[in-house]
Amino acid sequence: MTLRDFIPHLPGCASARFILLGLLSCLTSISQAQSVNPLEGNSRAITGGGSLFRAQCATCHGADAKGIATIDAPDLTMIWSERDLSVSEVFSTIRDGVPGSIMPPHKLTDSELWMLVSYLQDVAVAGVTDLPAGDVAAGAEAFRMNCSACHRAHGQGGSLGPNLNAITTRRSLESIMASVRQPSVIIGRGFKPVRVVTSGGEEVQGVLKSEDAFSLQMLDERQRLRGFQKTELQSLERLQQSVMPPFSRTALSDSDLYHILNYIQSGAAQ
After folding, report:
1. Neighbours of 179 (CB within 10 A)
2. In the CATH scheme, what architecture does the domain 3-123 have?
3. pLDDT tens, 163-195?
4. DSSP state, residue 35
């Protein structure tokens, strides 16, 4: 069902349906090759995109676009921050789907696809806007002691966890603090913990990077990229606990965390 099919079923007055139809009519020439969303910030496009989202996407991604963990449908309010996608990449993903996943292609017009992208931009989580002041030097030391084994910032650190260079521009303070205190509640794609046992008895634990029906790639706890054919494995276990330990306020105070975030933010443009 496209938005044009969906409009007759919209509740409310006929004028609302007329507005949406008019928006579709005036946008038929928009090209999918655009690298900039031509409808970004357009209130009518956002409204139409929201209607499309609820009709086409909410079953898997939730009415609030925050995802449904039980079917591994991602939080779409975080796609810009967690994966650093361009609008054209989001456009293409909606249109073409994701091979090997439950995400299907969608037979929508270019105009409707851009309306969906506009809606997703509108509901996206903003970066930190209310970061308390902190000591950058103290944050650098706290980052080195607590984070750098697995995370990178300012070009230094490990790769087992997400790169934090621009984390303060992409996630809210509340979201960052929740991830530090309870990292297993939401584990991002590309960092889901797994344990495999090979046919030779080797046990390897780490984070899953890619997988298809026959093979998988993972980054082990020594941060080495490993590849395995599934036929060579005795077992494959998908773990529930993040490889990142939870940091209580005793282990890492709020003040220490603010220092770290100020340190990271000082290099957010890198």
Report:
1. 22
2. Orthogonal Bundle (1.10)
3. 998 888 877 888 899 999 999 988 887 899 999
4. S
DSSP one-letter string for 223-237: S-EEEEEGGGEEEEE
d(CA 11, CA 8): 8
| Of 77, 113, 41, residue with least CA distance to 188 | 77
One-letter amino acid of 213: A
pTM: 0.61
Closest listed residue to residue 249, CA positions, set 187, 181, 200, 190 = 181
Q: Work out the pLDDT band at 198, boundaries 50, 70, 90.
A: very high
Has domain 136-183+244-265 been given CATH number 3.40.50.720? no
**Mean pLDDT of all residues in 234-242:** 96
CATH 2.60.40.10 fits 192-238, yes or no: no
